[in-house]
Specification:
Layout (H helix, E strand, L loop, with lengths): L2 E4 L1 E2 L9 E2 L27 E3 L11 H4 L8 E2 L6 E2 L20 H21 L4 H26 L1 E30 L7 E42 L4 E53 L15 E3 L4 E10 L3 E7 L1 H4 L7 E7 L6 E3 L5 E7 L1
Antiparallel strand pairs: 1-9, 2-3, 4-8, 5-6, 7-9, 7-10, 7-11, 7-13, 8-9, 11-12, 12-15, 13-14, 14-15
Bound molecules: zinc ion (2 copies).
Length: about 375
């Protein structure tokens, strides 16, 4: 069921407010009702009211309702005054209704479109140049930072005229021997001989024992009834229509359910634990050779009957330089480069700030050999 509600309008000419929807001329200035937008008192535009919130709604009596037509009012094209639907002539200037083509809603739509276009135009012309300039500054600072870091970490330091005082080399070969060991475990590996065995706890299995009933609390939503709410429609004739709607209301219902749940028990599992003896090759010693000249050789491993060579072989080649300013330092390098270095040589060594490996440079600054501090 719908009910009618009184609408109001404000005079666009003199600013007089709250003139009832069925009053056709402004009581203050006498002008005919023109470009207006109807509103209600006590109900906001687009309001959705609950059944208990309609206390301020100003309903029309049956007698009052007769004063409003079902259709929207029409605008006179000559004097722009808003006339009742039933009026065949403009109450203001007397022009006929046939000569006019827009009604209240057409005019309202036109006005709203115009306002939206004006708002859009205002937004588009808002200043945006400031943000752009800030971004350019940010880029400049970033580029300066990157260039700075790059220059700093690339910085090289060359120390020249370092006197080579010593060269040295060393080579190593690991040696294994074959011996009998005592070990234990869940199984004897191939080649092992059992010494003793015992039974020990290996792990627990979870075994289904029985099921038990458990009470479980559950809830569900059930329909509790319907409630009424209202919306309001502008009829375009100085009144509004209250439209009744209905929506379902739910409540939470609690209930218990019996559920069957499995109950497990832990069952110990046992297994045989072995103590056994086994012959194995294992690391025993390292054979080393070294010297302070270029006469390199691999060490004599002097293998016993139960020994063999292992891996990996290692080798190291180094030289020591000295200067009054920096003292002594020892460096390692590849064998081929090391063979070109002799005691009494003078070297230049270049180091990088990043901590990357330094290198030997010739008199023209060219990289000759990569080296590493020992
Ligand atoms: Zn007025
Ligand atoms: Zn007129």
């Amino acid at each position: 069921m719908s009910r009618m509600v009184m609408g109001y309008w404000d005079c666009p000419v003199c600013g007089n407010k709250g003139i009832a929807g069925n009053v056709m001329n402004c009581p203050a200035c006498g002008r005919a009702r023109g470009d207006v937008k109807f509103y209600m008192k006590g109900v906001a535009e687009n309001a959705v009211l609950e059944a208990d919130q309609t206390g301020n709604v100003e309903y029309l009596s049956e007698e009052q309702a007769k004063d409003f037509d079902a259709e929207a009012d029409w605008y006179c094209s000559f004097c722009n005054s808003l006339n009742k639907n039933r009026a065949a002539f403009c109450s203001n200037c007397g022009a006929t209704r046939e000569q006019s083509e827009s009604n209240y809603f057409d005019q309202l739509k036109k006005r709203q479109e115009q306002e939206a276009a004006e708002a859009a135009a205002q937004n588009a012309s808002a200043p945006r140049a400031k943000a752009g300039r800030n971004r350019i500054w940010l880029w400049l600072v970033l580029i300066a930072l990157v260039v700075g870091v790059f220059t700093y970490t690339n910085g090289n330091t060359t120390k020249g005229d370092l006197l080579v005082t010593d060269i040295s080399w060393s080579r190593e070969i690991p040696v294994e021997d074959y011996r009998e060991y005592q070990e234990e475990g869940w199984a004897i590996p191939q080649g092992g001989a059992q010494i003793s065995k015992s039974t020990k706890l290996h792990h627990y299995d979870q075994v289904l024992d029985h099921y038990e009933d458990v009470e479980v609390q559950r809830s569900r939503q059930v329909l509790d009834g319907y409630e009424t709410y209202y919306t309001y429609t502008d009829r375009g004739n100085g009144s509004f229509e209250q439209v009744e709607h209905s929506r379902p209301v739910y409540k939470t219902e609690y209930y218990t359910e019996t559920e069957s749940r499995p109950v497990y028990r832990s069952v110990p599992r046992y297994a045989t634990w072995y103590v056994y003896s086994i012959w194995r090759w294992k690391y025993a010693r390292t054979a080393t050779a070294s010297g302070t000249d270029h006469e390199t050789a691999w060490p004599d491993t002097a293998l016993q009957e139960n020994e063999r060579e292992s891996t990996p072989r290692t080798e190291e080649y180094s030289f020591t330089v000295e200067s009054e300013k920096d003292g002594r330092s020892t460096w390692t390098l590849a064998e081929a480069d090391w063979r070109n270095i002799n005691p009494g040589d003078k070297l230049n060594i270049t180091t990088k700030r990043t901590g990357a490996d330094p290198w030997i440079t010739d008199s023209d600054g060219n990289q000759v050999a990569q080296i590493r501090r020992k």
